[in-house]
Write a structure and sequence with these properties.
Blueprint lengths: L40 E8 L5 E6 L6 H12 L3 E4 L2 E5 L3 H11 L2 E3 L1
Parallel strand pairs: 1-5
Antiparallel strand pairs: 1-2, 2-4, 3-4
Length: 111
C-alpha cells in the first residue's frame, strides 16, 4: 500500500522505461546479469566469537543463490550456519572443506 493511497495526493506509480502506469505496463522484467563463479573472488576468514567459538566466514560473493550455497556448505561441514549481510558464516573451523567446495564449483578462493 502506498503512503497516500486513496487521497488527492495519490500519484500512481509509472514504469521508468515506457512511462505507462505500472498496472498497464507490458515491459519485460529486467534481467540482472549474473557474474559467473570464475570471475568472483571468495575471501575466507576464521573469526573468533563470544566465548571462544570459531566461525568460518565467506565474503565477496555476488550471487543471488547464497542460501543454496549455504545449504551445500552446511551439509558438507556437518555444521550450522547463516547468511548475514551478504556473507556466509559456518560454525566451526572448516576452512579446508569450504575452500575445496568453492574451488570445485569454480570460485577463485583467497585466504
Amino acid at each position: 500500500m502506498r503512503l497516500f493511497a486513496g487521497t488527492p495526493f495519490d500519484i500512481p506509480p509509472h514504469c521508468e522505461r515506457c512511462g505507462k502506469l505500472q498496472e498497464s505496463c507490458e515491459c519485460p522484467p529486467e534481467k540482472v546479469p549474473r557474474v559467473p563463479p570464475e570471475q568472483q573472488l571468495a575471501r575466507l576468514a576464521l573469526e573468533k566469537r563470544k566465548k571462544g567459538k570459531l566461525v568460518t566466514v565467506v565474503r565477496g560473493l555476488e550471487t543471488d543463490d547464497l542460501a543454496d550455497l549455504l545449504t551445500r556448505l552446511k551439509s558438507l561441514c556437518g555444521a550450522g550456519g547463516t547468511v548475514k549481510e551478504g556473507t556466509i558464516e559456518i560454525q566451526g573451523n572448516h576452512l579446508d572443506r569450504v575452500r575445496g567446495l568453492l574451488a570445485a564449483i569454480g570460485y577463485r578462493v583467497q585466504k
